[in-house]
Write a structure and sequence with these properties.
Blueprint (H helix, E strand, L loop, with lengths): L5 H42 L14 E9 L10 E4 L5 E3 L5 E8 L1 E8 L6 E7 L4 E7 L8 H5 L4 H13 L4 E4 H7 L4 H5 L5 E7 L7 E7 L20 E4 L2 E2 L15 E7 L18 E6 L4
Parallel strand pairs: 1-7, 11-14
Antiparallel strand pairs: 1-4, 2-3, 2-5, 5-6, 8-13, 9-10, 11-12, 13-14
Length: 296
């Protein structure tokens, strides 16, 4: 029998151990390779470099308001101010009476329209995301004897002086800036609940995504905007004016400016207590006057 040298057996053991070592090294390298993409991606994110992935799709939740403002003869009014209530967004009409607002959040908005020599007005709009609302509105000229009052809005000090003068007469209900600040309310609707003659009535609106809307109704009537009532009478919505601009009736109180910018509120429950200045409104259900610090 042929005898094989012993080193061949030893060499065979050495080769087996070498294979185990190489397999271990390969396994470690594979694990490192698997972790490398995630590590590199995190480093890219930290450095602010663009990733090699498709960008996320942006959901458009804004729309555009495009409109025209003219007089009763449809002549364009140049320089009319268009402001979104309870926001700082405002633009002015051009020589052709047109204006345009872009990137406006979708939802319900109240536009306040002003121009010296004309009676201010407001209009409610419903803006859908990625859509454009087009509207045309006419302003009525102010009475000649009151033209000076129409041209410019009274200063805050003058408006608050008139506010205090009416307060001393003892008619109506009043809430000044100090009391508003003391209430520490988040929404102006909470302030309206403090008035004895105001019934804040919630109702569900389909146009507002099924969310409840709050309306000011006269407590002299027992009806509601949904048609139900306990005394057989109909609902009686109160007229709301913000800085002497009449809001659409009935008016959703949640659209009022923030309590932080309100300087005073006064409420009259009917024509008998109404100051002569606002006697021209159909105020049988009462009127709410809201005065802001900037006066628009």
């Amino acid at each position: 029998m042929e005898r094989r040298p012993p080193f061949r057996f030893i060499t065979g053991v050495t080769r087996l151990s070498e294979l185990h070592r190489r397999a271990t090294i390969l396994a470690v390298v594979a694990c490192a390779a698997a972790l490398l993409p995630a590590t590199a991606a995190s480093q890219i994110a930290r450095k602010g470099l663009p990733r090699d992935t498709a960008p996320a799709r942006t959901v458009v939740r804004t729309g555009t308001i495009d409109g025209f403002i003219g007089d009763s003869a449809l002549n364009p009014i140049f320089g009319a101010e268009v402001k979104i209530l309870a926001t700082s967004v405002k633009v002015n009409t051009g020589p052709n009476g047109r204006f345009r607002m872009t990137a406006v959040p979708a939802g319900q908005h109240v536009l306040v329209l002003r121009r010296g020599g004309y009676r201010p007005a407001s209009v409610m709009i419903e803006l859908t995301a990625a859509d454009t609302v087009r509207l045309s509105y006419s302003l009525e000229r102010g009475v000649t004897t009151l033209a000076a009052a129409v041209v410019s809005t009274p200063s805050l000090s003058l408006r608050l002086t008139e506010f205090e003068s009416r307060r001393r007469l003892g008619r109506g209900e009043f809430m000044d800036e100090a009391e508003i600040r003391k209430r520490n309310a988040v929404y102006s609707t909470e302030l309206m609940r403090r008035f004895m003659t105001v019934n804040v009535s919630p109702t569900t609106s389909k146009s507002n995504g099924g969310m409840p809307e709050q309306y000011a109704l006269s407590r002299r009537e027992t009806g509601s905007l949904t048609g139900g009532n306990s005394g057989g009478g109909g609902y009686c919505p109160m007229i709301v004016l913000v800085d002497d601009v009449k809001m659409p009736t009935p008016f959703n109180l949640d659209m009022l400016p923030s309590p932080k910018v309100i300087a005073g509120i006064e409420v009259y429950n009917g024509a008998a207590t109404m100051p002569p200045r606002w006697a021209g409104f159909d105020s049988g259900c009462g009127i709410i006057l809201v005065w802001t610090k900037d006066g628009y």
